[in-house]
Amino acid sequence: MPTPAGAAGHSELGGPRLPPERPGGAWAWARRNLFASAWSTLATVGAVSAAALVLPATVRWTLLDAVWRPDYQACRALDYRGACWGMVAEKHRLILFGRFPNAEHWRPLVATLLVVLALLVSGHPRAWRRWLLGLWATVAAAFFVLMRGGVLGLSPVGSEQWGGFPLTVLLTLAGVGASIPLGVGLALARRSGLPLLRAGARLYIELVRGVPLITVLFVATFVFPLVLPQGMPLDALGRIVLAITLFQAAYMAEVVRGGLQALPRGQLEAAESLGLGWWQTQRKVILPQALVLVIPSFVNSLLSTFMDTSLVTVVSMYDLTGALRLALGDAQWRNFFIEGYLFVGTIYLVCCFGLSRYSHWLEARLGRWARQEPSRA
Amino acid sequence: MRRSLTSLPPLALALAAAFAPVAAQAGKTLDAVKARGEVICGVNTSAPGFSAVDSQGKWVGLDVDTCRAVAAAVLGDPAKVKFVPLNSQQRFAALQGGEIDILSRNTTWTLTRDASLGIVFAGINYYDGQGFMVPRKLKVDSARKLGGATICVQAGTTSEKNVADYFQAHAIKYKTVVFDTAEGIQSAFFAGRCQAYTTDVSDLSGARTKTARPDDYVILPDVISKEPLGPAVRRGDDEWFQIVRWTGFLMLEAEEAKLTQANVDRMKAESKDPAVQRLLGTGDDTGKLLGLDKEWGYRIVKAVGNYGESFERNLGPSTPLALPRGPNRLWSQGGLMYAPPVR
Amino acid sequence: MPLPSVSWSSRSGRALIVQGALLALLILAGAALWRNTQGALAARQIRSGFSFLSEPAGFDIGEGPVPYTPRDSYLVAFAAGLANTLRVSALGIVLATVLGTLIGVGRLSRNVLVRAGCTAYVEVLRNVPLVILLFGTYLVLTEFLPEATEPISLPGSAFLSKGGLHAPRPLWAAGWGAALLGLPLGGAAAWLLARWARARRARTGRGPAVGWAGLGLVLAGPVVGWLLGGAPRGLELPEPGPFGVAGGLSLTPEFLALLTGLTLSAAASIAEIVRSGLLAVSHGQAEAAGALGLRPRQTTRLVLLPQALRVIIPPLTSQFLNLTKNSSLAVAIGYPDLVSIANTAMNQNGQALECILVIMAVYLSVNLVTALLMNLYERRVALVER
């Protein structure tokens, strides 16, 4: 006869139970997070010993033993035991501003600061009003006046002398900015009821997304000069901007399409039942909602374009990356290329990390906003 | 990358057509230059002796002088030149697309380039040949002894093809490292990635001056090709072609006639030699035939001097390149430089 | 039957007219462009057309699996470039997937140090341009390694220097052919075993776990083939020569730098994909599997992994395509991939348009093939979903 062995267990399980106690304190935290299992302990020991090995040496190289003055002899005497930040001190203007005439460096500096300021202002959803367009138009005009000169007593500087960080910013913002209307158009075409339009848009998008950016830059450098009618006011820089725009438009179209698809069909039907035409529906109902939805994705496009612009150095533009290579053309200082790459890499890292954090913040905020919206209506 | 992709290839061709060239006007370059008040000249990004920026930020070099001479002849002012630095990939596209008026960028004249790129060479301002540079410590004394070596060569140059021909002809095995810019290939070589660097000898000499220790490198005596370098212009504008071509010839004629930057004013005032008078515009009007004024030749010599002066200033023994005049001497001194008479 | 009325007042009529106009415009523009192109090229006497593909290329290619000499045609040169692209991409994909998976799993680790390390890796690598990474790696390899004439000796007769990494290479022998043949045979055997186990499980409700046995079979195939083929053990050893190490298997600094850069940066993206894929499977799934009596390992293999993979595979595929496209940055550091070769070719013959079209066509074909495979996969996954 089976004894009710299980019954005892059952009665033990019955009744309410408190959750297992979670002991506090540093030791408990360490047990949970550092020594939870044999593997975890092993990983902790490994990580700590690796850090003990690498960190002091890194700190010594980067900070303690480093040479900060632009003193070539002192850097050589280091024999790589410490960083030669003197290389950056010596070349930072060339790296940041490329071949822009030295005496005029305040111009790209002010121009870039203006743009960065405008970006910061645009960052907050409260600034998303009509006046923002006006602000950007003003900033863009100021940027070009400062860079190009030739008016207001500024000496003219040809676009072939632009370089460094301002060029990177220009390529990014002009490329992304101009690609937005194109991308919206492509996205609408791709969802249009006209099969031909739809096929054309889809073809363009897939074609561009299928090829590497470098190919498009080659097209800009080698094919555009033949394609574009002579006398068209488009120099090498203009062609590159055009190429980045055309390239980015395909990606932008997919971003916008994501927003369009996220909208409930009811919006469209409601607009139609109100008797709005196609254009009115898109302009007044669909696009305003869809575009707000995809703003975090816009920011991500901005980020990836910012990094992609570094490719233009392959077609001999001196953006931030290209200007660094220009600086490393100096036979003396090129031995300290690691410092140069760390400097430029850090600039990219800081900008991109900031942008991606911002995009996360925006996403969370807009998500909240979008959830609240129906109740407010 | 959805199902739709299967329909791409035929449509891709349609788009390809959209990327295809539109007819550009075979424009009147001379008129455009005069209207603009500036000659736009494509030069090398950095080739010491041919085109490079000096410490005062001024473009100098043999190729730069060609541009300045044309500006002096056409616009009366050698300073009215806009220099567009080009790498070897961009150079032909820039000329074809009308971005520049003259390509004066130590470019080798070959049949393929002359006949299939939509450009035409307007003369030769430097007779060069391709050579090899090796680190001195390798103790190599001939290109024939480079079997098994890794050789740095720039992409898209005549050097790239010549080196393939040469080693094939001599059945020597080698490996190449190819970069698309001169800066890229030179830094790879000086970093020690390759055991030899090959390009035009003048270019090798120029590259060597850019290193911290030029004496660590030797240029081998072997010259494996002919590299006639000269300016080129767009096809289909004979008037402009003639101006560029005869600007070069005039600099040679001036050397032959012993006209120099220093003596040209005096010669213009005093010389009774009809040949000199033709060159300087005090005799027959030679400019009219080219669409220029009478004193075009005088202005060229005044601006950049004769060919020999330009050579000495940019490449000669007093420069870091210290290149011998060699085949670039006048024909009358046993060289190859020979200009048809300006008359 | 009434014909559709083609008038502006009806919606379908408008659609027809707009599209007709669009089509006409496209055809007109296309024709005009075509005519202009021909005209412009002819007027300037710029050569056009694809006939150059069969002419000898005349330039050399530094490395690659395709036997190529300067006497070969442009077409062969392009093929050699493509082979180099595929070689670096395939290796990069494998390495980046392994590294990315490790880091992605590490980001979910319960150990805080592992988690922090993996997060830092992802954040740094995702926010620095690949070009910077490539230039930096290449410079480190070519500036800091010893001269090719004085290489570092590594264990196993390998050498490392500015000339790259040189390792012993097995000499080709018939036995290797047998080993190659063994691989598909082993694979087929593993497939048969898995099928038998599945059928048995369907019939009897219990079937042996054959995962390890299958893997064993796949691996055993080539080994048995190699043994049967006479176990060839000849190696071509690299030897230091007057101009550096020669012979053996050689990996150039250009290849190594490109591979490293592509792997490191793609691994960061793949880690994110893996992480979000794992997070996408709801916790309830694991609990439910546990409640059904599945052991943790079975839970992972039968419940969690299939669901996570369905989320992971599509973005992973586009990462693979990205990596392949990014390999075109080879041109910046002198690795002869397809784009570099095309770049050289267009500089040699001036036919930029044609050479760029070749690059585009190849990349689009690669995308096309991948998209087709993806569709097959998606259809399979969709069938499993009931």
Describe the structure.
The complex is a heterotrimer of chains A (377), B (343) and C (386). Chain A is mainly alpha-helical and 377 residues long. In chain A, 72% of the residues lie in helices and 0% in strands. Chain A contains 16 helices and no strands. Chain A has helices spanning 5-13, 26-33, 38-64, 72-78, 86-97, 106-123, 131-148, 164-190, 195-210, 213-227, 236-262, 265-273, 278-293, 295-308, 320-327, 337-376. Chain A is flat and about 75 Å long. The termini of chain A are far apart. Mean pLDDT of chain A is 83; it is low at 1-11 and 371-377. The longest helix of chain B is centred in the C-terminal third of the chain and has 19 residues, at 238-256. By secondary structure, chain B is of the alpha/beta class. Chain B has helices at 8-18, 29-36, 62-75, 90-96, 111-116, 158-169, 182-191, 201-209, 238-256, 264-270, 274-280, 296-304, 307-314, and strands at 39-44, 52-53, 59-60, 81-86, 102-108, 119-121, 126-128, 130-135, 150-154, 175-179, 196-200, 217-219, 227-234. Chain B has 13 helices and 13 strands. In chain B, strands 1, 4, 5, 6, 7 and 13 form a six-stranded mixed β-sheet that branches. A five-stranded mixed β-sheet of chain B has the order 10-9-11-8-12, sandwiched between helices. In chain B, strands 2-3 form a two-stranded antiparallel sheet. In chain B, helix 3 (62-75) packs across helix 9 and helix 3 (62-75) packs antiparallel against helix 12. By secondary structure, chain C is an alpha+beta fold. Helices cover 68% and strands 6% of the residues of chain C. Chain C is built from twelve helices and eight strands. A four-stranded antiparallel β-sheet of chain C has the order 1-2-3-8. The mean pLDDT of chain C is 85. Chains in contact: A-B, A-C, B-C. At the B-C interface, helix 1, helix 4, helix 5, helix 6 and strand 10 of B face helix 1, helix 4, helix 9, helix 11 and helix 12 of C.
| Biggest β-sheet: strands ordered side by side in the sheet of chain C | 1-2-3-8
Total beta strand runs of chain A: 0
Return the average pLDDT of chain A rounded to an integer: 83
The whole-angstrom Rg of chain A is 28 Å
Order of helices and strands of chain A: HHHHHHHHHHHHHHHH
